[in-house]
Design goal:
alpha+beta, globular, 234 residues, 11 strands, eight-stranded mixed sheet, three-stranded antiparallel sheet, OB fold (Dihydrolipoamide Acetyltransferase, E2P)
């Protein structure tokens, strides 16, 4: 049985641009799904099939509507808000997750309001500009998500994947034995990385491609805590 759906995007971009820009970290399309007058995204929240997921930013079109629908689903104990459904076996503790997601959303909203005007690039939305800046080895500021923390150690060097499979970007701390590197690692651990923490940060430094000879992936080398900031560059 075929079902015809209409897709609505969060911005007024032309369809060709929206299809390229409205994608998640794995390249999946992000859109509102309608079947006639039925709004599937809203229906899922109202029925308790899903929370209002703001971990990567709020809805520009339906923020208030989604918040209200989520509150009503919680009040009625629908779906995931029913302890009998979300209480046995593997669960997600939304009592802890929702405040964390909302905190992350507030940093994204701050970036939307001030970051682009200050010249700060977004890893996801400005990835082409990030690559171009890395080719020119320019000093730039990048708004990125450090939730995953240090992904790999190469000897005493720390590698942080600050992008995604679809938009690669990495940070590199060359030697953890250096006092400045120890300060960086401590700041990352206590403020930016891991569940429940801020995660989003502006990283400033000289961009480059690694490996350069193969026109590789964009990166910034971290050598000082001053390269990490909560606000965009003045």
């Amino acid at each position: 049985m075929e079902v015809s759906l209409d897709l609505e995007f969060d911005t007024a971009d032309p369809p060709s641009l929206a299809l390229a820009r409205h994608r998640d970290n794995y390249g999946r399309l992000l859109a509102y799904a309608w079947r006639g007058a039925e709004h599937y995204n809203l229906a899922a929240i109202m029925a308790g099939w899903s929370p209002y997921f703001v971990k990567y930013g709020r809805s520009r079109r339906y923020h208030g509507v989604f918040l209200q629908a989520e509150a009503r689903a919680q009040a009625s104990g629908a779906g995931i808000w029913d302890p009998g459904i979300n209480g046995a076996g593997p669960t997600r503790d939304y009592r802890c997750l929702l405040p964390w997601w909302q905190m992350r959303d507030s940093w994204i909203e701050d970036y939307r309001a001030t970051g682009p005007q200050a010249g700060a690039l977004s890893v996801r939305l400005g990835h082409a500009d990030l690559i171009a800046a890395a080719r020119r080895e320019e000093r730039i500021s990048v708004f990125c998500d450090l939730q995953g923390g240090i992904n790999r150690w190469v000897g005493d060097a720390a590698l942080i994947y600050a992008g995604s499979p679809a938009q690669p970007f990495k940070l590199w701390i060359p030697d953890r034995r250096v006092p400045a590197a120890q300060d960086l690692l401590r700041l990352l651990e206590t403020r930016y990385t891991g569940e429940g923490r801020q995660n989003y940060v502006y990283v400033t430094g000289q961009a480059s491609l690694y490996p350069a000879q193969d026109d590789g992936k964009p990166q910034i080398v971290l050598a000082d805590t001053a390269q990490l900031a909560d606000l965009p560059p003045a």
